[in-house]
Each structure stands twice: as C-alpha cells, then as structure tokens.
C-alpha cells in the first residue's frame, strides 16, 4: 500500500473542503428522449477553450479540461440529476480544485444497456453501437450543447445543463468494387452475452474478383482498433483542394494529404499485374468494454478468440472464396493489433502461417509499461524508504514525459467505474482479469491507490503473458510456431512497449528448437514503428497492407503443402 496520501484520501479531504452550499450542476434528460428510463455514466466537462467541443478535448495531460463523472440509474425522461462538487474529477480531484472563471461546459450521458448474460449474471454496460466504444460519439448517447458559464466552486448556486441531442445511428458502409462487408452472427458470443452478437469484416477483394470464380485466395487479417470501414485504400488521387489537417506528433502540416497519397498509392499497387491476388480483412469486434476484443477468449468479454478463428473466418472464407487453410492465413497489426496478431498466432498456432507484430501492447507483464506486476506493489509509484517517484505513462522520442500512469487511470475512473471507461488500462483488465463476484472484471490495479492485486497478476501471467506462455510451453508450441513470429518496435516507443519486447527477444533467441523469426528495433522510433528503417514512421505506419507481402509470399513458398493451390490466385 502507499505510504503517502492515497487518491481516495485526497478526494475525501477535497470533499471536506467544499463549502456546504457549493455550486452544483443540475443536468436534465430530454422529455422526448427515446427511452423511458436511463442507466449510464453522466460525464461533465469544463474547458477554458471553445473548440473543439469540450467532449472532444478529454484526454490525460497538462492541457486536459476538467471532467467529473457519476453513475445514474433509472432516471426517467424529463428527469434531472444533480452533480455535486465532491464527485471525483480529473485533473482536479473534485470541482473544489477548479479555479473560479469562465468556462465552456458540456455534459454527455453515456448510456448503458442491461445485459443478461448466459452465465446468469446481469450487468450494466455500454453496448457497441457503431462508433467503436467512443463515448463522445456513440449512437444513443445524449449530449448538451456547449455553453459558456461563470463557475466559482466557493459560490452557492446551481448551473442548469440541458441534455438536448441524441446522437444518431452510424450509417453502415456500402459495398464497392473493391471493399465488401460481411456481418456475421457468432453463436458462441450470442450465448455468452445473452443477445445477438455480431462480428463484422471489412474485406478488400482483389482486382477482377468477380471475373475469376475459379480462384481461391490467401487471407491476411489486419488487426487493429475499431475500423468503421476498410482504411488506407483510395481509388482516386488525393484531393488537391482539401484543407490541410496538421499532425502535431509527426510535425506534418498536411498529414491528411500524406494519408490520401499513401491510400491511392496502395490502390495502384493492389491492381498492378505483379501484386498477389489476396483477401485482406479488417475486423470490427467492438464489444461492451472496448473498440476491440484483443482476439482472445476472455472471462469478461467472451470467447472472441474462438469466435474469430473458428466461426467468423471460415464463414468469411466460404463467402469470399478464401483457401481456408492455415498455410494461407496471415496476421499483422500494430499496437493493440500487434498484440492481437501475436496472441492469435500463439493460441491458434496451426490456424495461421505467420504474424507480423508491430509495436505490440505489453507482451511480457514484467514490463506492463514500466511496472513489473509480479514483483511491484504499485502501478503509480516507485516507493523507497523515505519517498516515492511517479511512474510515467507516455513519452516522446526525447524521453520527455506527457503524463503519468496515475493520470490516465484517474481519468478512466471518472469516465466509468467497473472497467467501463472504454480506456486502455480498463480494457487490459477486462480482457486479462478473472470475473469478479459482481459479474464485472476483477481489477489488477486499484484505480484510487494504484495498488496491485497479486492474485489477479498470477491469473494474467498464466493466461495472457505471451512471453511467459512461450517460455513455459515452447516444447509443445515450437513445431507449429517456428518461422511465424516477427516483431517490430521502436526503441523509444511512446508507451514503453519496447521494454517487454526486449525480454521476449531473450526468450525467443534462447529457444530450442530455434524460433526462426525476427525481432527488430527502430532507432529513436516512436509508436508505432513496424519494421521499415528506410521511411519515417509517419509514412511507414500507413503501409501495413503492403510491407509484409514479400514475407508472406516467401512463407507460402516454403510451407504450402503438396497439392496446394498456388496458381488460381496469381492471375494477372
């Protein structure tokens, strides 16, 4: 436990400092709201800036707006909810810590559904409704119009906020010549969640797909965050009149034009005579906890690993004429997608023939960013006999820190308790943790104090620590994994993800029999470097769908079984 004042203690002290008649916010649900009653998380944002809207400014860091949050239960349409000054907040721990001044304020009701799961438990969670579990934009959420106010935490009174707009449904993408869509109802996930549950594939088909019914194609699975459609593919040249959209991370004043050019260049490669004819799918497996499932079976999310590998992909290959055998399936992705690609290859070693793993989320929980969850007691602090030092969560290539681990977790705590924030630390806990007695994930890290539960840590190690699993099970896995694991990460990854790769590399290089893959590092490269040492990260990160093609073709040449179809899909 922490030696100094805990977050919970700080909240309690701040609450005591709030005047008895401190200013509050009264939030009203529209009288014509679609539902009769609402459960969910009510989020209030105050910002000194008017653009973008306050809801789009919410992020950890020194420039963060003030956010407070609370659960609501059974609030009727037309009803009101009072948000008091002692509610937990970020960056200030309560509204009592917000300086008096002029602010732009906005409220969002993140709506929860009642899930009656197959295990008999009932939980309240935000259903995936088409926006990738982004509470700022999820259809059905109710928002207020931004308004300018004068706020003073020491002044008695009440500020009225009217939720006024229900966010509309997201129109599903339409099929085109090259991009097709496949919505699949998963039997296993439907049983788990107690309601119809779907996985959607955005499938890039090869040139002249409809003119070659005899062809059967290899399949590449591009894992990543929620895809609204297949990305990075454009059949028309860049729009020369498009206003520039800068990217501060890469220092590019017109990054949108770079993206358009790369997407168009990939289209031209895709239709060229020598490019292999294949299928590429981006998968929407958003769920009540996050914008994707990490493609593994989970006590809290359900059997997504089995559903994707054993249900969804065979159905997709049947519809789009995939070869449908392990030697002709490949995985790649970056960050979350890098971890998913590696995990799928390890957990289903015969189902895939190679994973190209860019900047993966922690693949060794001795380096859970900068914390060893097995030996350290706290995820927020390094503690000594006379003091403590805060642990960072994000840096740039110079090592300059943007925010701390506690910052990110405190913000998640405000946005949703019980791992319902849709944030990064929460989804790790939802995927990797056992289920608690209340039907929600057991937390590894206490959001208030940062303390680590060692029992939960052991569950993570035995079931999801990919480096530990490889070391423990290599004798069994080696015949089916040799030559299939290829890992790429920058040595200045913003989220310290390179640290876990170092220990992974040690395990792989000592493996007997040899693993026959590769681990490469980008010098001073940030997140998400994926193996291209010749191009800047700003460009190479846009080339996942083409940069591993040569390696895929070589794997096919080396490993295709006798009699395999190596020609029908090579038409020009």
Automatic annotation (TrEMBL):
Range of residues in the leader sequence: 1-22
Top-level taxon of origin: Bacteria
Keywords (A to Z) from UniProt: Signal
PANTHER family from the UniProt entry: ENTEROCHELIN ESTERASE-RELATED, IRON(III) ENTEROBACTIN ESTERASE
The protein, known as: Esterase
Provenance organism: Sphingomonas changnyeongensis
């Amino acid at each position: 436990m922490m030696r100094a004042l805990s977050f919970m203690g700080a909240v309690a002290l701040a609450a005591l400092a709030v005047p008895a008649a401190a200013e509050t916010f009264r939030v009203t649900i529209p009288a014509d709201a679609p539902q009769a009653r609402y459960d969910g998380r009510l989020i209030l944002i105050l910002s000194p800036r008017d653009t973008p809207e306050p809801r789009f400014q919410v992020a950890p860091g020194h420039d963060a707006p003030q956010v407070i949050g609370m659960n609501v239960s059974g609030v009727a349409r037309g009803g009101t909810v009072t948000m008091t000054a002692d509610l937990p907040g970020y960056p200030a721990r309560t509204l009592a810590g917000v300086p008096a001044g002029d602010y732009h304020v906005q409220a969002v009701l993140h709506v929860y559904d009642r899930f009656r799961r197959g295990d008999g438990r009932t939980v309240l969670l935000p259903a995936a409704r088409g926006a990738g579990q982004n509470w700022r934009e999820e259809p059905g959420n109710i928002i207020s119009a931004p308004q300018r106010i004068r706020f003073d935490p020491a002044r008695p009174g009440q500020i009225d906020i009217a939720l006024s707009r229900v966010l509309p449904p997201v129109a599903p993408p339409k099929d085109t010549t090259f991009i097709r869509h496949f919505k699949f109802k998963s039997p296993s996930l439907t049983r788990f969640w107690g309601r119809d549950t779907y996985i959607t594939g955005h499938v890039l088909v090869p040139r002249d797909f409809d003119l070659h019914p005899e062809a059967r194609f290899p399949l590449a699975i591009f894992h990543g965050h929620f895809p609204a459609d297949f990305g990075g593919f454009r059949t028309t040249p860049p729009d020369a009149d498009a206003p520039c959209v800068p990217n501060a991370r890469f220092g590019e004043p017109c990054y949108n034009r770079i993206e358009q050019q790369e997407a168009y260049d990939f289209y031209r490669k895709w239709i060229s005579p020598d490019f292999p004819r294949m299928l590429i799918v981006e998968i929407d497996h958003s769920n009540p906890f996050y914008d994707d499932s990490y493609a593994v079976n989970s006590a809290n999310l359900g059997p997504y690993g089995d559903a994707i590998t054993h249900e969804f992909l065979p159905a997709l290959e049947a519809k789009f004429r995939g070869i449908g055998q392990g030697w002709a399936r490949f995985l790649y992705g970056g960050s979350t997608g890098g971890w998913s690609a590696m995990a799928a290859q390890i957990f289903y070693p015969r189902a895939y023939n190679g994973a190209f793993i860019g900047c993966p989320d922690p693949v060794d929980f001795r380096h859970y960013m900068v914390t060893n969850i097995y030996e350290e007691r706290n995820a927020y602090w390094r503690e000594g006999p006379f003091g403590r030092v805060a642990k960072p969560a994000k840096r740039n290539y110079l090592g300059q820190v943007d925010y701390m681990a506690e910052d990110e977790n405190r913000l998640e705590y405000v946005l949703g308790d019980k791992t319902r924030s849709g944030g990064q630390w929460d989804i790790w806990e939802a995927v990797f943790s056992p289920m608690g007695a209340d039907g929600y994930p057991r937390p590894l890290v206490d959001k208030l104090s940062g303390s680590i539960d060692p029992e939960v840590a052991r569950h993570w190690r035995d079931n999801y620590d990919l480096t530990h699993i490889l070391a423990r099970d290599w004798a069994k896995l080696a015949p089916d994994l040799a030559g299939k694991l290829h890992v790429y990460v920058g040595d200045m990854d913003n989220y310290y993800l390179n640290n876990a790769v170092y220990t992974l590399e040690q395990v792989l290089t000592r493996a007997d029999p040899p693993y026959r893959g590769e681990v490469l590092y980008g010098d001073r490269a940030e997140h998400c470097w994926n193996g291209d040492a010749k191009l800047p990260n700003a460009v190479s990160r846009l080339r996942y769908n083409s940069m591993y093609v040569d390696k895929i073709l070589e794997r096919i040449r080396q490993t295709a079984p006798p009699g395999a179809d190596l020609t029908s899909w090579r038409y020009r």
